[in-house]
Amino acid sequence: MSTPVLELHGVGKRFRSADGHERVVLDGIDFTLHEGEIVSLLGKSGSGKSTLLRIMAGLIAADAGEVRYRGQPLYGPVRGVGMVFQSFALFPWLTVQQNVELGLEARGLPPAQRAPKAAAAIELIGLAGFEGALPRELSGGMRQRVGIARALVTEPEVLLMDEAFSALDVLTGERLRDDILELWHGGALPTKAMLVVSHSIEEAVVMADRVLVLASDPGRIRSQLAVWLPRPRAADSEEVRLLVDEVYALVTAGATRHGHDGGAAALAQRLPQADVARIDGLAERLAAPPFGGHADLPALAREAGLPDTELLAAAHALALLGLAHLDSGDLHLTPLGHRYVEAERPLRQELFGQQLLTQVPLAAHIRHSLEQESDGHLADEAFRRLLAQQLGEADAARVLQTLVAWARHGGVFEYDLHTGTLALPSGGSAAGAVE
Q: What are the structural domains of the chain?
């Protein structure tokens, strides 16, 4: 193996919520990035991928363990590590040239030295002629190229990319990805190693020499897969498709396990961010020909035309609700799932509500709490606070939003957004009568 560039040993990170409760985001991360390799990092939303990259970039400090760059402890940002963000992070009032020069200016380089270096980076990334343009005058793909040029102009040995292609349409993202790989193999990049957080399994396999899968709550490296295929790799080749299948299996391993022993942790279950229409649509697609209730996830993704994030969220939701099984990258409808697909809308909603109460402890807890109130109403504050203690404020809001949408569909409870009040459904509900 070639020379280590970045090393993480036992790295952990905790965040403290507004009420003082600590939440473990990362725990026991051991990882080495070597010269000459591209590593892709996959994981569910909230698994700590972005936090891990920021620790590696020296933007935030780890609370446990050690990070080393070129054998030396990393205590803050270093010149050898550059980062590209998903959101482009450009200053809208600065031109392309001025945005790219920012990193050099921060290092104290005079204008006479900054200008030619920035111009060279802009030309390298394919934006020559746009030096004087403002970000609002550029397409999304061009704005992301500016972000990449700004990272490359400082000639980093390590380039960290935080879902750098996910905000772009599919074709633009693929074109930019292929351009980066071409520059990498042509020796045009100053970079000696790359770590790419991705939302696409296919992208990870096409780009990387290694694929890491991060578990959640807390974030840990659950598995990794070496990719020995030479580049360039055709996404539709049999070898790539087999590896994509293997990574799907790694990503979905243990999808139906709740992973909690009880108490507050069980109530603060992280729900997949899938709306009911997407869940129903995937179940219907799975039941229909050519699948007949059983499909390989990559094949199902191609048939449904869904990106991995949406497909996996809906697949995990079906598994969580007991309507399907996820096993080694395959999705199978359960007998109840088949009944669900064949049912008319009222029965579907009833079944959905019943499974929500049975399979999601927080839904049952909220329903029971509402039934204890004389008027059937409760403020959401206590439940939001309980979730925030385990998941953090942002993820707590997302979980509650998803749960409310599912509960309203299944007739489990209602929610008034303006008052933040949860309530029993008016007129009762079949789902609510389930013991």
A: 4-252 (3.40.50.300), 276-433 (no CATH)
